[in-house]
C-alpha cells in the first residue's frame, strides 16, 4: 500500500494533479462512482492552422495560452500543408481569426468528415464566418450595417467620413456575458458572469436550440470602452458562444478569442473547457 502511495505522490508532483481518497463508491446524491453516467475524456490532441491568411495575433494568443501557460503539446500546420495532415491523429482543431479562402474544397470535405466521426472544432472570430460560408453550421451572423435612414441627405460633408466609419467599428470594449454554468463550457464559473474583451469581428444570433448558447450578452452588457449606440443595439441578446452537434462531433463557435493579448485571464477557462470538455457536449 505504501508503494502505491509513493507512486501516486510521484505522479501528482510530475503532472500537478491532485488525488483524493474516498471511503465508499456510493454517493449521497448524483451518480455513484463507476456509473454509466460518467463520461471518459480523451486526452486532447490539437491542430491549429497558421500561416498565410491566419491572423498572427489571434493565433499567437492561443499559442501562448496552450504552450506557455498550460504546457500542452499541439501541432501548428501551415494552411498550404493542411491537405497532407492526417486529421485522425487529432481530437481537436482550433481555427482562429483570419482569411481561410486559401483552403481548398478537398480539405473542407475532410474536415467535415472528421467532425462527423467525433472531432471537436473550435472557431473564433472570422473563422466562424468561414464555417457559415462553407455550410458547416446553421449559425447566423447579425448584420452590423445600420439601417439606412431615408431622412438623411444623400450627400455628406467629407469631414464626417471618419466619424461614420468609426460608428461601424469596435476598437475595443469590455462586455459582461452571462454563462450557463450547467453547460460543459461553463464549468468552473461559479456566478455565471464572464467579462469578455470584444473587438467586434462578428456578432452571432443565439442558436435556435435553447441549450446551445452557453454564453450570451443579455441587455446592455457594455462595461467599458467605446462603441456607437447603433452597434451596441446589435449586441443586445446576441451570442458570444454557440455550440452545434455535427454528426458524432461538435463545433464550438466563438465571436472573440477568449484570451485577448495573453493577459485576459478571466476567459481562458472558456477556451480550456472547450478543448477538454467539448467532446462531451450532447
How would you characterize the overall build of this protein?
This protein has a single domain (46-147, 165-280), classed as Rossmann fold (3-Layer(aba) Sandwich). It is 25% helix and 20% strand. It has helices at residues 2-15, 56-69, 105-116, 126-133, 161-166, 229-235, 268-277; strands at 46-50, 74-78, 92-95, 120-124, 172-179, 193-198, 215-217, 222-226, 238-246, 249-254. Strands 1, 2, 3, 4, 5, 6, 7, 8, 9 and 10 form a 10-stranded mixed beta sheet that branches. Helix 3 links the parallel strand 3 (92-95) and strand 4 (120-124). It starts with a helix and ends in a 5-residue tail after the last helix.
Quick synopsis:
This protein is α/β, with parallel strands linked by helices and 282 residues long. It is built from 7 helices and 10 strands.
